[in-house]
Amino acid sequence: MSGAALGQWRGSRALRIGGCVVAAIIALAVISPWFAPYSAVAFDVRLRFAPPSAAHFFGTDEFGRDVFSRVLVGARYSLAMGFGAMAISVIAGVPLGLLAAFHRGFAEAAIMRAVDLLISLPPILLGLLILAVTPPNLWKTIVAVGIVYIPILTRLTRSVALGLLEEDFVQAARARGEGAVSILAREILPNAWPPIIVESGLRVTFAILLGSSLSFLGLGPQPPSSEWGLMIAESRQFIDRAPWMGLAPGLSLCALLIAVNLFGEGLRERLDPRLSGRGRA
Amino acid sequence: MPETDLEVAERAPGAGGSSPALRIEDLSVSYATIRGRVRALDHVSLAIPRGQVLGLVGESGSGKSTVVLALLGLLDEAAEVTATALEFEGHDLLGDPVTPRGRRIGTVFQDPSSILNPALPVGLQVAEPLLVHRRMGRAEAFERAKELLAQMGIPRPGAVMRAYPHQLSGGMKQRALIAQALATEPDLLLLDEPTTALDVTVEAQILDLLDGLRAERGLTMLLVSHNLGIVDRICDRVCVLYAGRTLESGPTSALLQAPRHPYTRGLLGALPRPDRLEAAPLVPIPGNLPDLTNPDPGCNFRPRCPFAEQGCAEPQFLSEILPGHWVRCHRVGIVETLPWPLPEPVARAGGGTPERHRERLVEAAEMQRAFRSGGTFARLLGTESVTRAVDGVSLAIGRGESVGLVGESGCGKSTLGRLLLRLLPAESGSLRFAGEAVPEHPAAEFRRRAQIVFQNPDTALNPRQTVAAILSRPLHRFALAEGPEVVREVERLLDLVRLPHAFRSRYPHQLSGGEKQRVGIARALATRPDFVIADEAVSALDVSVQAAVLNLLADLRARLGVAYLFISHDIGVIAHIAERVVVMYRGRLMEEGRTAQVLHPPYHPYTEALLSAVPVVGARERSASRIRLAGDASSAVSAAGCPFAARCPRRIGPLCDTVPPPWQVAAEGHRIACHIPLPTLAAMPPALGG
Q1: How do residues B590-629 score in pLDDT, each as one tens digit?
Q2: Which of A94, A123, A154, B305 has its CA 20 to 30 A from that of B275?
Q3: pLDDT (0 to 100) of residue B1
Q4: Best residue in A166, A171, A176 to probe B by mutation, most B CBs within 10 Å?
Q5: H or E segment at B573?
Q6: Superfamily of domain B355-561 in the CATH hierarchy
Q7: How many CB atoms lie within 10 A of CB A273?
Q8: In angstroms, rounded to a whole number, what is the distance separating the alpha carbons of residues B364 and B390?
Q9: How high is the mean pLDDT of chain B?
Q10: CB-based burial, B341-374: b 16+ in 10 Å, e otherwise
């Protein structure tokens, strides 16, 4: 990113606040194994269902595990699912979109119809289809969520690229007889990435949510893992005795989603020319 | 601003005696932006007597549209507007711009396609002011709207009423908008570049319409335009605006015949004119608009003025040098006697080779290309519509020759350009380059030797690449330079288009329009081509910049021996740069010949109409012999005969509709596709006058 862009990084409040919170959550998640006050998996039968206190901020669960420590460690799963899945969709979806835009005809028809097929299935059902056949684990959930969001990236990339392919500077590249790879890499992609980044930033929220939903259904990381969706699922039967067991991961998920959304929204304000007003030198 | 200017303004323009219909005194507008306060207008005063037309001219950034928006109270909320008077027939527009807007003040904006609501039928939009402001009943309002459309010269007004904007041509839409503006019978009509988005032949129709309205209804008009020819055609008085200040104002003919301010002189000198072929080269005004965030307290044209001296740093005032003729220049008496410094002479000849000995570089034969609209279903049902963009065109261009291709929008000229570069596949026809056939997917050598410069400098350069990256890519691609040579070659290219070496590290958004266009030219020249297509390469530029780019192109041709195909709708530009002109209409060539031959009889009736539609400064008396075309290039479907037959004012009979016109050779290298015998064509009056 150029110096000018970095200078304007401070521009939006949403970007600043969202960015700070997301960064804080990522930092906490990374250092959680050393930072967490207790082990996330160690039982303590004497302390079952202890309410929140100075010793256990978010109380304990049915095995006496510290919920605060579990939530901290569990943040890594949510982040991994959100950003990992988006990375997969970008890596697969963007080249497909570029290809569809550049090679009108058979390649476009094949890619776009496949995308239509994927998009016509409800995300949770698609995730279930992918995960149901083999024993679930974290990586499979990430890949499944990634696949769910490929069509959105492919469509977006294609439409942005189609617009750019009409531009005169692309005609100039054609007049030099440049090949497809050169045109896509030099002329299209550098101009197409802002909307792609913005869209994937906003989609991280959905990916986290979908990932958590899948593991709520038992199709994600398995116990004793402290993935938030799984924690919420396990807490259901104790909701009258120990509401903090579900509230703590639930509210954490909420905070993370809001922060990521703010960050994505801020990115959009910053990068989308229609919102920022053109021609700021 | 000191008080003296106020005093001057008290008596300033208007000069009609009786109270003017519109009076603007000391109008200033400024905006707060990231870079600081931009002063868009700086104490502008003007007045229009009832029934008169005032032309407000200036280049982009001069603030002329800001005047219109200020009168309508439509400026951005961030704008700070001050004026000692902003009055329309005694009504204070500064305090209450809303009441007269749309009722007593009608407005016509530049681009008719973006002003009309695409989702509503045209009739409703014309009737809307009547429904809203006059509280007329629906039937009555629609009846009146229909009458108005008929008065604007719209052929079947009933059908147009029911049509949606996308079904109408640009000229029709502009007529509908004028009808809408006139619906409430306003006393003042504000016209902001009303014909800029239209073809010359349609522009001429609209100007005739406006001229008629003024004569019949005694309408007062404010015409904002960058085109001096249009202003000369219908305005009584002209006011020249530069960077927010009035530099000169006076009666149209006096001001345009004998401009006093150096800027006005510069504008006229930079104008390419089809009626002055052998005249001196165009005289560009060097430099760019001054920084509006930091207005010069002295003369703001000073940095670009060839006559500037120390006294120019003092504040300048409008002074009345002749009755009603005001100039803001303290040296006006001295300056007007000084000759304008000419640019370094430009060799006009094509490398000194006599024309007939020139080797042929590009030879296209029977090129054909159609565009289909409608999808697969339309094709199956047989309802698909086919537009023959290029319909059997043969064209040859010699080495080092510059050929102009002229025609209205939609005539297929840009498509032909892309066919010649094999950027679009042709359906049939052959293309030879330097004696060899060019296949559909040409080899790298053809790509290197044939290049293109685009119309819009804003989209022609990749916004994410620096100038150095843009210019070095062609060098790498064709292995023309390596390592440190690349840097030297990029510098040579920048020198060639007269840009400083420091521009290497700039991004396109850091350049002005003229500078971007120079980078675009440098990129085309980087491959050391033999043939360059300039597709409307100067039409997006201001006159002063356009002149510099045209001179640069002419100079490069003389030095490098490059052949040009200059595609333009502006016959003035073509006449200036091209040795040979090709006239195109609806995909076919109508006439071809040396520039001087094409500009004088005998010529094709279409060429005649094009020439006569061009608004030329100082040619008011031409109006008597003016040829007017009805409709526009898309209005009639041609049959087997001459594509122009439906609009041709000199159509001789059914022959024109059924038999394709033969090529008649008027002189060596000059041919005309028309049924009318040559002697009759030769006897036509010269369209450019004199």
Answers
A1: 999 999 889 888 889 999 888 888 888 876 655 546 777 7
A2: B305
A3: 39
A4: A176
A5: helix B571-577
A6: P-loop containing nucleotide triphosphate hydrolases (3.40.50.300)
A7: 12
A8: 12
A9: 85
A10: eebeebeeebbeeeeeebeebbbbeebbbeeeee
Mean per-residue pLDDT, B117-124 = 92
Q: List the single range of A159-173, B353-367, B502-516 with lowest mean pLDDT.
A: B353-367
Distance CA A173, CA B474 (A): 9
* Substitution target from A104, A164, A168 for chain B, most B beta carbons within 10 A: A168
Length of chain A: 281
Query: Beta partners for B248?
Result: B240, B327
The pLDDT assigned to A215 comes to 86
What residues form DSSP beta bridges with B87?
B23, B92
B450–A contact, CB cutoff 8 A: yes
Rounded Cα distance between B540 and B114, Å, is: 18
Tell me how crowded residue A210 is: count the other CB atoms within 10 A of its CB: 24
The one-letter code for the residue type at A253 is L
Q: What average pLDDT does the segment B68-84 reach?
A: 89
Does A177 lie at the interface with B, CB-CB under 8 angstroms?
A: yes
Highest mean pLDDT (candidates B71-80, B294-303, B325-334, B430-439) = B430-439
Domain ranges, ordered by start, for chain B: 1-101+216-337, 355-561, 600-682
A281: chain B residues, CB-CB within 8 Å:
35, 509-510
Residues B48-72 have a mean pLDDT of 90
Q: State residue A90's pLDDT score.
A: 94
Instruction: Show the low-confidence residues of chain A (pLDDT under 50).
Output: 1-10, 276-281
Say if B1-101+216-337 and B355-561 have the same CATH topology.
yes
On whether any CB of chain A is under 8 Å from the CB of B463, the answer is yes
Instruction: Report helix, strand or coil for B332.
Output: helix
Q: Please determine, for residue B58, whether its predicted confidence score (pLDDT) is greater than 90.
A: no
Fold that domain A55-276 belongs to in CATH: MetI-like fold (1.10.3720)
Tell me the C-alpha distance between A234 and A217, whole Å.
Answer: 10
Distance CA A128, CA A146 (A): 13
Contacts of B509 in chain A (CB under 8 A): 279, 281
Residue B618, Cα to own-chain centre: how many angstroms? 18
- Taking the C-alpha atoms of residue B299 and residue B313, their distance in angstroms, rounded to an integer, is 6
Write down the ipTM of this complex.
Answer: 0.77
Pairing of strands B588-594, B670-673: antiparallel
- For the domain bounded by B1-101+216-337, which CATH number is listed? 3.40.50.300
